[in-house]
Amino acid sequence: MKMRRHTQTSEDTGIDLTPMLDVVFIMLIFFIVTTTFVREAGINVNRPSAETAERQDQQTILVAISAEDEIYIDGRSVDIRGLRAEIERLKGQAPDATVVVQADQDAGAGVMVQVMDKARLAGARNVAVAAETPR
Questions:
Q1: How far is Cα 22 from Cα 44, in angstroms, rounded to an integer?
Q2: Which of 12, 60, 18, 66 is nearest to 40 (CA)?
Q3: Domain edges within the chain
């Protein structure tokens, strides 16, 4: 019996990566489409704790009040005079959204009341104050 030796040409030695790249791109598109984006108020707030705190899973408009009584929406500072217009703009994008006020525990109560008042004047039916559950 004679043994034949099989010689490979340069055409046979390459690996076709096209199917693997197709799968990677399809997975990338899948993950981008199924990702939910979380909106943050833009600053870290030291929220007070409350025994009755509940998690909100519906659409929310987050308004943060820092310890220095500065107001933030989407990471940018907003003056109290422009807050109503900003909330009205966001309510136009999500009419049923709840306005959640994330006030620092050292923030003034007067500023928080003003923010809640501006939210109600902007047409928000549900206005809530964010708190953490005690550990």
A1: 40
A2: 60
A3: 60-129
| Total residues found in the chain within this entry | 135
Q: Closest Cα to residue 71, out of 95, 104, 96, 94? A: 104
Taking Cα atoms as reference points, which of 105, 129, 97 lies closest to residue 115? Answer: 129
Q: What is the pTM of this model?
A: 0.58
* Cβ–Cβ under 8 Å, residues 97 and 127: no
> Hey, which residues does 101 pair with through a beta bridge?
63, 129
Query: pLDDT tens digits, residue range 61-75?
Result: 888 898 888 999 887
How far apart CA 17 and CA 40 sit, in angstroms, is 40
Q: In angstroms, rounded to a whole number, what is the distance separating the alpha carbons of residues 119 and 97? A: 11
Note the CATH architecture for domain 60-129.
Answer: 2-Layer Sandwich (3.30)
Element (H, E) at 102: strand 98-103
Quickly list H helices, 66-107: 80-93
